[in-house]
Amino acid sequence: MPVAPYTGDVLENPRSPRVRAVAKLSKRAARQETGLFLLEGPQAAREALAWASESVLELYATPSALEKHSDVRDAAVDAGVDLQYTTEAVLDAMADTVTPQGIVAVARQSPTALKDILAGEPTLLAICEEVRDPGNLGTIIRAADAAGADAVILTGRTVDLYNPKVVRSTTGSLFHLPVAVDLDLADVVERVHDAGLRVVAADVGGEDFVASRGLLGEPTAWLFGNEARGLDESALAHADLSLRLPIYGRAESLNLATAASVCLYETAFAQRAG
Predict the structure, then answer these.
(1) CATH 3.40.1280.10 location in the chain
(2) Domain 10-108 CATH assignment equals 3.30.1330.30
């Protein structure tokens, strides 16, 4: 049942302790201390409430924003989320972005354990080793979701999954598939092998992608490396196979997230064709 327009108190002080506590979640130290993270905008809130409502603790919004996005308001009420209306100034103080679109939420971090991912007998995984750019990581998670991958696994010094820029870049895909964090690559590869997957590294020094694409119909875990350096020798040594995407035009290279999207989709095509 739709909720009537809000007529209660509005949080007005941008310097209040509650506002400051939310704003601090843009910093990794506060996220690590509290186990919470920040969601910004109606799309992120909508997806979180639809797919992981138990993780959403608080929703802050201007009255006009929730009149416009009444489905978000109704979902928050149905889920029993603490809903607080605010002024634009308070939203601006809380948000990491310049334009939070009138909605900010606080959610509990809920990464997935690797053992739980592997227990589901996955056939397509994305392993990110020292991916440092938040936009790239978020886009890889989004591409993995779109390609039907079973999970994303973060190893090495990969950027924090709950960095606000990562969360925004996933456009809600963060809540659609399991993501494991803070793992050691060697241990991940050993356990992925035990689960019956081939580990394929995306590397400019690898074999020709087109010639080897027939192998992708089998259970595959893609290994993606750092934007600037790629995968170092020790990381490549863990892979069963390294493949490079061909460049047919004059581009010097492909952006990491773009290359990862191609690799994941080609594998999804091959597996579904099989």
Answers:
(1) 114-273
(2) yes
**How large is the greatest C-alpha to C-alpha distance in the chain, in angstroms?**
65
Nearest by Cα to 168 from 145, 141, 148: 141
User: What pLDDT, in 10s, does the model give residues 117-142?
Assistant: 999 999 999 999 999 999 999 999 99
Average pLDDT over residues 170-189: 97
Q: What is the pTM of this model?
A: 0.93
pLDDT, average across residues 15-25: 96
- The length of the chain in residues reads 274
Contact at 8 Å (CB) between 22 and 106? yes
Q: Which residue intervals of the chain bear CATH 3.30.1330.30? A: 10-108
Q: Can you say how many angstroms the Cα of residue 2 is from the centroid of all Cα atoms in its chain? A: 31
Predicted local distance difference test score (pLDDT) of residue 4: 43
Please state, as a whole number, how many other Cβ atoms lie within 10 Å of the Cβ of residue 166: 25
Asked if 221 and 197 touch (Cβ cutoff 8 Å), the reply is yes
To the question of domain 114-273 being in CATH 3.40.50.1240, the answer is: no
Burial category of 24 from C-beta neighbours within 10 Å (exposed 0-12, middle 13-18, buried 19 and up): middle
